[in-house]
Amino acid sequence: MGYDWHRPLESQTLRFTLLTFLAIVVGGLVLLIPPYFMQGTVETIEGVRPYTALELEGRDLYIREGCNNCHSQMIRPFKAETDRYGPFTMAGENVYERPFLYGSRRTGPDLSRVGGNYPDSWHWIHFRRPQDIEPRSNMPSFAHLYRWPLDLSLTQRKLEVLRTLGHPYADEEVRDAVAEAQAQAAVVVARLRDEQGIQVSETEAGSEIVALIAYMQRLGTDVDLPPIESARAGAAPGRP
Amino acid sequence: MSERVSIQYDMAVVRGFAISALVWGAVGMLVGLLAALQLAFPDLNLPPYLQFGRIRPIHTNAVIFGFTLGVVFAGSYYGVQRLCRVRMFSDSLSRINLWGWNAIIVAAAVTLLLGKSTSKEYAELEWPIDIAIAVVWVVYAINFFGTVARRREKGMYVAIWFWIATILTIAMLHIFNSMALPVSWWKSYSAYAGIHDANIQWWYGHNAVGFLLTTPILGLMYYFLPKQIDRPIFSHRLSIVHFWSLIFIYMWAGPHHLIYSPLPDWAQTFGTAFSVMLILPSWGGMVNGLLTMRGAWDRVRTDPLLKMFAVGITFYGMSTFEGPMMAVKSVNSLSHFTNWTIGHVHSGALGWVALTCFASLYYMIPRLWHTQLYSVRLAEAHFWVATIGLVLYVTSMWISGVTQGLMWRAVNPDGSLTYTFIETVAAIRVYDIIRVCGGALYLSGVVLMFINVWKTIQQGSSAVPEAGPALTPAPVGGGK
Ligand code: HEM
Ligand code: HEM
User: Is B432:B400 a contact under the CB 8 Å cutoff?
Assistant: First the structure.
């Protein structure tokens, strides 16, 4: 095979560029368009709801702090994985995930179903200094989240934007976004103080850590799942 | 072929990008070293800002967009003028490209430190910066195509093909993956949700690897390797075949980042199948590079630049063998989420991308300042510390990744999991420490390069006007 046929192309910039474009566009069209429109890609799952205002703020903090660089939120369908983290991830659970947070590294454990696995007080101690709970952990301390006040100035706008994108927030939810976030935060703080005996100062009660904990406790709780405690307990004797 | 005319090439923009790339390379790898240290010694996290979760994207953005793309801009501006025997289309566009791009990298570093991030890997920057990137990219495209259109040379040399593919693909990927609805200046929500967001992100992410860390680097190889070794590329026919197949096949392989995710099975299968096919065009590039050096291996012994090209191309071959293997479902079930991926990334990044970039810079810098390289022995030392460093980095991460993968899946006879998660963290700590040593060695090579370049610039001068065609013309085409 010679390459004489190719020579003319090498001197015709426009034609060469168009052909290049054709070559690079096909794969994307086939892989991106059909899944977007095909019915079967995303199954509808009962119980999957958008995040509350406070949880959404917590999720945005998760992104700000780059937790996704160490934690995945995608459980694969293997026994070892479902035993450790719970049922594997389904597309229908992720319909309100903007952006998706599957992650690509598991320096720390998967978090997609961490909600309810630990009491709030555990997170409270853990985030301030993870080594206090797990001396061999290489997770950083997030002590600043206990000092920085939770900023709710954009919360309502965030819900509006997400509603535009199709998240089914009710009018009141958007209108009262700030009040609802504050109310949910108060519940978290009350639980910490009254039920779990944690000293929460007033600064801390209005700080970002409360939103992050609310988000943690929400993760994976939309869908009714068989408890995974038995498997986890078997694997982790002595874990708190 | 062409009449002898005196062409004043625009080398100021090349000098600018060469220096900025070196600076971003040093910064980016320093941040990488800090990240590596933090994984081994978590007390080195200095929250709020200097904390692993925030600095990791600063590392990737600085080394990919500041360093690698900086060298690509420098090399393509250097090469395209000579290959077309014409000055850049527009000096103003060149300036906008240089200053605009570096402003973007500064903005990226600052906003990422402040936690303004979309979280999408290699696309972390928020929408105002995304728009700026699109604008500067279009400026580069106009400048590049304008130059090619006004060329005094009949054909376009293969390096130009690879740069054309880069320009088109990155524009397309960037625009579609960055679609988002703003909440404020520094916060937006992705236009896609859940699995669709994942699908488009890894279409972007994989092809960013393909068209930022592969095709433009092949362009550098195709331009600078024949120049340095002073012989034509081994086979023009191979160039043709591997160029078209590489760019076509690459675009199908993205789903290999989403194996065993909720992405439809048929799409995952496409990802695996095309990844395996991708070996052939990738190795086409490797063979073309290595065989260009055939019969000149004695020169490789004495020339650190050729050593860098040779080891770089070899690592290209290795990582493009490893990648397809990792795209096979059974292997990916072990490697995904582990340090194996990190080993793969850095065998490509430290081996192929950075060594080829260093060699291209070592080639250009003395010519840009009209002098000789200050010290060939220093460059030789750079080559050796870099190679030892990268071998330490990559092998430790391979072992670490396999260890992690095996421990995660290990089960006792009664079916319960053998290891707690934290036991798997503790087990890989020793490799994290070896990686720190490897990274430190690699970075010390960059420091040597800095000194060498500094001295070279001091002894040279940017003032002497370039006489275009009087210098050795690029070997165009040739071979079988
Ligand atoms: C001194 C040299 C370097 C050191 C010490 C270093 C260190 C690191 C560390 C610690 C990580 C995070 C790994 C993890 O999350 O477990 C990382 C990620 C990464 N680095 Fe480097 N790096 C270096 C050079 C480079 C260069 C030159 C490039 C590219 C040209 C590069 C590209 C990347 C990429 C793309 C990732 C993300 C990988 C992924 O998400 O899977 N690095 N690096
Ligand atoms: C034939 C070529 C290649 C194939 C088929 C391939 C395949 C793969 C696969 C299967 C993964 C792991 C995905 C996962 O489990 O999460 C991966 C990750 C990666 N590869 Fe390659 N690879 C190739 C070449 C390269 C080269 C030359 C580089 C250059 C540096 C590179 C850079 C990366 C990066 C940066 C990642 C990490 C992405 C992330 O998770 O953030 N690859 N590749």
Answer: yes
CATH of the domain at A139: 1.10.760.10
The span from the CA of A64 to the CA of A70, in Å, is: 13
- Chain A positions in Cβ-Cβ contact with residue B420 (cut-off 8 Å): 235-236, 239
In chain B, what are the domain boundaries?
Answer: 12-183+194-459
Tell me how far apart the alpha carbons of residues B380 and A150 are, in angstroms, rounded to a whole number.
54
Instruction: Give the number of domains in chain A.
Output: 1
Q: Does domain B12-183+194-459 have CATH number 3.30.830.10?
A: no
Whether the CB-CB separation of B215 and A185 falls below 8 Å is answered with no
Q: Are residues A96 and B203, on separate chains, in Cβ contact within 8 Å?
A: no
In a domain, residue A236? The reply is no
Smallest Cβ–Cβ distance between A144 and the set B48, B201, B422 belongs to B48
β-partners of residue B463 are none
The separation between CA B26 and the C-alpha centre of its own chain, rounded to angstroms, equals 15
User: What pLDDT, in 10s, does the model give residues B372-386?
Assistant: 999 999 999 999 999
Domain that holds residue A172: 53-221
CB-nearest to A17 from B40, B164, B200 is B164
Q: How far is CA A102 from CA A19, B37, B420, in A?
A: 35, 25, 21
The answer as to whether A59 is a domain residue is yes
What pLDDT, in 10s, does the model give residues B439-449? 999 999 999 99
